[in-house]
Amino acid sequence: MRITCVGGGPAGLYFAVLAKLADPGHEITVLERNPAGVTWGWGVVFWDDLLDDLFRYDPVSAERIWESARQWDEYEVRATGKPVTHLAGYGFSLGRHRLLEILAERAAELGVRISYRDELTDLSDLPPADLVVACDGARSRIREQYAEHFGAEVEVARNKYIWLGTTHVFDTFTFGFEKTEAGWIWFHAYPFNDRTSTFIVECQPSTWAALGFDTLDARDGCVKLQEIFAEHLNGKALIDHRAEVGGTGWLNFRRVTAHRWDHGNVVLMGDSAHTTHFAIGSGTKLAMQDAMALAEAVASGDDLAVALERYEHRRKAALAPLQRAARASSAWFERMPEYADLPAKRFSYALSNRRGEYPMWRFVLHMATQNIVARTLLRWTLSARRWSRARRRPNTSHSVAAGQAIPNTA
Ligand SMILES: Cc1cc2nc3c(=O)[nH]c(=O)nc-3n(C[C@H](O)[C@H](O)[C@H](O)COP(=O)(O)OP(=O)(O)OC[C@H]3O[C@@H](n4cnc5c(N)ncnc54)[C@H](O)[C@@H]3O)c2cc1C
After folding, report:
1. Which stretches does the entry tag as region Disordered (predicted)?
2. Which positions ≥6 away from 199 have C-beta within 8 Å?
3. In this structure, which CATH number among 3.40.50.920, 3.40.50.720, 3.40.640.10, 3.50.50.60 belongs to the domain 2-337?
4. Beta strand pairing status for 152-166 and 251-258?
5. Which residue among 33, 50, 141, 274 is best mutated to probe the pocket of ligand 1, counting the most ligand atoms within 8 A of its Cβ?
6. For 82-107, how does the pLDDT look when each residue is reduced to its tens digit (9 = 90+)?
7. pLDDT tens track for 326-352
8. 72 close to 38: Cβ distance less than 8 angstroms
């Protein structure tokens, strides 16, 4: 088959890897408008479920992702006027730049052609292909070109957010809420290598305007945010990539849905088909799981139209609960000031329950982990679990010492 992927993000590159693994005879080209090694965004978080899938579909790239990922072991919640609280839970983070580097390298090893600085402006410009995968992100040009057919809808969320980086390395996943004269403003931050953390700032639009972000450029906006969050940054800078190209990175999240995902031999995948609010940190995972499902559907040997329909049904069913959780979660942040007067522990509990799916056993566990002895036990349990997972990893050749199963730095 001749396959063209438009977009070299996690979805496009991972699909190219899996399709080539399924049939080395496929001729696969990935078109990416950016130069090699250039991307937007900072680190992304993910959990065991994605790692398990990655090891199942391609142990080689999974091993590299795992080795480059950083693990964090709890959530820390800081809010003006409240003592710091801790919530149980662990996860992983990885720089988007490093993730794409791993996937591009793996794709090239398998014989995929990646054409950088190659921006598609119109589908009719493409050379003939049996399958065109539109993995060109949330603002997909291909989806827009056939907007009516795909039945795409874009809903713009109310809050303002900006995706920044910082050279302050946070100890763990940290939520920080600051009360200013203009209202509450907060960050979600986590380390993703030994030099850098992701730092996403969010606030209501009235607070954003009252703080002057509607007029400040990227550099002055960062300075203002550094002042607001000074006590969390240890004197380190916030970095907005937009400072180099003008404008600022402040945005409103765009929730994309599409009624249909295929049109002849063209199929949507990843953010071009659906976006999921960053408040639950799952968009990359869902994009890569789309790639897994599409590669399997194509490899089934069924008629292409049947395969694409099966892919769409399978993925829409899998997405639904996470999209509900993402909606509930972003709505919680839109109403955040209503929770601000809660005492520290109840505030943290409300935050962790924002997805609307927090089971009672986790609440009990959370309350228990406020106790230092219980927290120590929990750490031991997590270490044992990591050690046992390292032993259980399928088809991998890594050898890691107990307690070092997941390296801490990229
Ligand atoms: C603030 C924020 C934080 C996030 N945090 C997380 C997180 O912690 N965990 C997580 O799992 N997800 C997170 N996400 C979501 C995640 O970034 C996306 O869901 C994911 O990148 C989707 O992958 P994709 O490959 O579908 O699209 P993209 O990553 O957007 O890739 C699309 C690619 O297509 C290229 N392209 C676009 N148009 C064209 C064209 N016409 N021609 C050629 N190339 C083109 C682009 O340059 C890009 O490289 C976050 C998102 C945001 C906004």
Report:
1. 391-410
2. 42, 164, 165, 166, 187, 188, 189, 238
3. 3.50.50.60
4. antiparallel
5. 33
6. 999 999 999 999 999 999 999 999 99
7. 999 999 999 999 999 999 999 999 999
8. no
